[in-house]
Design goal:
The chain is mainly beta and 124 residues long. It has a single domain, classed as Sandwich (Jelly Rolls). It has a seven-stranded mixed sheet with strand order 1-2-3-4-7-5-6. A hairpin with a 2-residue loop joins strand 2 and strand 3. The N terminus is likely disordered.
Length: 124
């Protein structure tokens, strides 16, 4: 719900400003209505990607997690052990959005993912 109001399907750009120095990084989402900066944790290792945002009782409106994969592939996520609804934005290596899933249902085991390959997923 937090993201839905910003998302006009046309004209959406996303880029990550990834600093390797710290655990919190910024991702800027730009739409026709303006831009918003999210403070995100990076999930770049298999263990971090597997754990994701599980078991967290809340997530700030400007927070999230950016899952980065080593290569473009067919990605699929679920909400097992995730306590809060999340928006998932699937991205190509150049920041283009290939799929957006709004308000994924907590604890759902239903796979969520795009038809096209992606290299990153932003959960907010």
């Amino acid at each position: 719900m937090r993201f839905r109001f910003w998302l006009p399907w046309a004209a959406l750009l996303l880029w990550a400003q990834v600093a390797l120095a710290g655990p919190i990084n910024e991702v800027t989402v730009v739409t026709a209505q303006g831009w918003h900066v999210f403070k995100v944790e990076l999930a770049v290792t298999p263990a971090a990607r597997s754990r994701g945002l599980m078991h967290r009782p809340e997530l700030a409106a400007d927070a999230g997690m950016l899952f980065i994969f080593p290569r473009r592939e067919q990605l699929s996520f679920w909400m097992k052990n995730t306590l809060i609804p999340l928006d998932m934005i699937f991205l190509t290596g150049d920041g283009r959005i290939v799929h957006v899933h709004h308000m994924a249902q907590p604890h759902s085991l239903t796979p969520i993912g795009p038809q096209a390959p992606a290299v990153a997923v932003l959960e907010i």
